[in-house]
Design brief:
- This protein has a six-stranded parallel β-sheet, with helices on both faces. It has a three-stranded antiparallel β-sheet with strand order 3-2-9.
- The protein is elongated.
- Helix 10 packs across helix 11.
- It has 17 helices and eleven strands.
- The chain is 48% helix and 15% strand.
- Helix 4 (142-150) links the parallel strand 7 and strand 8 (161-168).
- The protein has helices at residues 46-60, 72-84, 100-108, 142-150, 171-181, 187-196, 211-223, 228-239, 245-254, 260-266, 269-275, 281-299, 307-317, 327-339, 342-348, 361-376, 401-421; strands at 2-9, 16-25, 28-37, 65-68, 89-92, 114-117, 132-135, 161-168, 206-209, 383-386, 389-392.
- It has 423 residues and is an alpha/beta fold.
- It starts with a strand and ends with a helix.
Length: 423
């Protein structure tokens, strides 16, 4: 199959840019053509925007077009404008007069030229006859873009190629497209890979970018600020959800930015998330009450080995806030956690300790010395041994225990990832 990808913006500017991308696979030849138009015409009027869309659609369309709209009102408006121009157009959405299966049948049998939809066809719908996709919904979501693109990728005996007409709103959403197609991690990484010819693709595939698009990507990548906030938002856009700490750590490694900037600029990971308005109400309450504990006991605690994080994983696994475990229980559970990580087991345990069993007194004695002692020996340590039980000193409200547990686990996984990565 051949794919023609046309990316069009209706914003005002003073230049016209054409970008071509070619993709060839063992299954056939795919042709992507990005054409990014920046007319000097102001398109603030809905009717002017609709005419702008109609003109480009008339030039590039094929037989059966599926269009993605932002709202029911948007879909109805676009359908009415296309009808007024003499085309067979309908709007379909949850509750529309025309039902989804009827709309698909009409499009399949050539009774409609274009179908304007809202949310119904993003995923899970088989539309093999669609030969033109019209993207009118502004999005910076990689997932949503791929879902919409995927509606037209099915083979059909009456379809020789797919045309995708994408009306973009800004350069950031333009960059999402090649990042998604290359399964990339960041805009800067994409620019570097394309420039050096190291972009990863499936076997049998290749992409050729014209110099114009390489220059554009490099220029836009340079404009990306090197702030933690910008990189956080970039990853959030690529993932389509709030990144967890470990994901952000690996992402920063990809773009060669140190995680230490989080602490320098925001004091802690969850404070960064809070400053981006991404904490739930419960998480924000926990951060306010237990932020110092999360930071000092986990995020910033010194680690010569992985033992502290293994200990905390065992504590959480034993529901230590509700039922503080005995040191014997904690040592045994820790052994099993460590044993599930053979890399850490062999790296961090001396050879003469690797033969100890989980329930042996020798293992309990060893684990008491390190790490239990280093978390509970001093007055300012976060835990204390009370009647043989490992007790957290934090006074946690019942409604906060589950959330604190989850936030601790996120930081534990981060510290383990950082420890493994340092070699």
């Amino acid at each position: 199959m051949r794919i023609v990808f046309i990316s069009i913006s209706g914003v005002s500017s003073c230049f016209c840019l054409q970008i071509k991308t070619y993709l060839k696979s063992a299954a056939g030849a795919f042709f992507f053509k990005f054409v990014d138009f920046y007319p000097q015409l102001s398109l603030k009027s809905p009717k002017k925007r609709a005419r702008h869309i109609l003109n480009h659609w008339q030039e590039k369309r094929q037989q059966r077009t599926l269009a993605f709209c932002i709202s029911q009102r948007h879909a109805e408006f676009m359908a009415s404008e296309f009808k007024a121009a003499g085309y067979r157009a309908e709007a379909v959405y949850n509750g529309s007069e025309l039902r989804r299966h009827e709309a698909l049948s009409q499009l399949e049998h050539g009774e409609l030229d274009v179908l304007f939809s809202v949310d119904l066809f993003n995923e899970g719908t088989d539309l093999p006859a669609i030969d033109t996709v019209l993207m009118l919904r502004p999005t910076e979501s990689k997932i949503l873009f791929l879902q919409q693109l995927g509606r037209g990728l099915r083979l059909h005996h009456q379809k020789t190629h797919l045309v995708v007409i994408d009306f973009i709103g800004n350069h950031k959403s333009f960059l999402i497209k090649p990042v998604a197609l290359h399964n990339g991690h960041s805009f800067k990484q994409l620019a570097k890979q394309i420039t050096t010819g190291s972009a990863e693709l499936p076997d049998g595939c290749f992409v050729n970018y014209e110099p114009t698009v390489i220059d554009l990507l490099n220029r836009l990548a340079r404009q990306q600020k090197d702030s933690i906030e910008d990189e956080y938002q970039t990853l959030k856009t690529l993932l389509d959800y709030r990144p967890i700490a470990t994901e952000f750590y690996h992402y920063l490694n990809e773009i060669q930015m140190p995680l230490s900037r989080v602490g320098q600029q925001h004091n802690s990971w969850f404070q960064l998330v809070a400053n981006q308005q991404d904490l739930t109400k419960q998480e924000a309450e926990v951060l306010q009450r237990h932020g110092d504990f999360l930071r000092s006991a986990i995020e910033k605690t010194a680690m010569a080995k992985s033992f502290k994080m293994i200990l905390l994983s065992a504590f959480l696994d034993l529901d230590g806030f509700d039922n503080p475990p005995t040191t014997e229980q904690l040592a045994e559970k820790s052994w099993h956690h460590l044993k599930r990580r053979p890399d850490l087991f062999t790296k961090d345990l001396p050879e003469n300790k690797q033969t100890l069993t989980a329930d042996s007194k020798a293992w309990h004695k060893y684990w008491l010395g390190n790490p239990i002692k280093f978390y509970s020996n001093k007055d300012n340590d976060p835990f204390v041994i009370d009647s043989g039980r490992f007790v957290c000193k934090e006074k946690v409200l019942p409604q906060h225990k589950a959330t604190l547990h989850q936030m601790m686990q996120e930081l534990v996984e981060l510290r383990i990832a950082m420890y493994i990565n340092r070699g």
